[in-house]
Amino acid sequence: MRKKKLVVLTGAGISAESGLKTFRDTDGLWEGYNVYEVATPTGFEKNPELVLDFYNMRRKDVAAAKPNEAHTGLAELEKDFDVTVITQNIDDLHERGGSSNIIHLHGEIFKMRSVTNSNLIYDIRGDINIGDLAEDAGQLRPHIVWFDELVPKIEDALEVMSTAEIFVVIGTSLLVYPAAGLVNYAPANIPKFIIDKNIPYTRSISNVTVIEKPATEGVKELKRILSEFT
Question: How far is CA 56 from CA 4, 124, 150, in A?
């Protein structure tokens, strides 16, 4: 029997319960750092060592984190649904949680690339330092989409959105574009679910069910509801 296409858009809220602080938390990982100093091309040009150190710390944080029940719960849905996860997160907790089809809109913390050729991408588990070069002699930088940069994977995400038969949003404020705009590309008549302990503005979204809970509890409830769709 053909599985229904389930598309899930996730943000920092799904990884918060794994101990990874969210962008907008008052104690978030950006506190003490001006975002334009550590997450823009201009910031990297001005002080590359600061930016590399910042993401080296993020890489250690992610390596120490473990997937939570929201990550594993989404992976379990693959038994009954054709699931694609579109994530704004740079961590690998969806992969480690068992999901098999993931689009990383904002890059991946365990990858790096040349500053002169964005197609020269390498795996990285340790630190990136000044003087670490790609095969084209370009300085290596995190494979992260910074503010003021294009989001190369957005086209892939838009294509997936057009095929969705069920759409779920988990742990995102729906304030960061272009990712937030993806909700407008879900077919109007399909069932939609939003899981967050602080539900974002949803008036413009049709046919939506709100689950105002943290991601782990919300995914458990989602699974109970979706059991009626199989």
Answer: 39, 10, 23
Question: pLDDT tens-digit profile of 53-105?
Answer: 999 999 999 999 999 999 999 999 999 999 999 999 999 999 999 999 999 99
On whether both 184 and 217 belong to a single domain, the answer is: yes
Q: For position 34, which CATH number holds? A: 3.30.1600.10
pTM of the entire predicted model = 0.93
Q: Which of 82, 79, 142, 139 is nearest to 108 (CA)?
A: 142
* Active-site annotation holder among 94, 104, 106, 143: 106
Burial status of residue 130 (CB atoms within 10 A of its CB: 0-12, 13-18, 19 or more): exposed
Q: Are residues 210 and 119 in the same domain?
A: no
> Is 106 tagged catalytic?
yes
Any idea what the CATH number is for the domain that residue 15 is in?
Answer: 3.40.50.1220
Q: Which domain holds residue 174?
A: 1-20+67-106+152-230
pLDDT classification of 28: cutoffs 50, 70, 90: very low
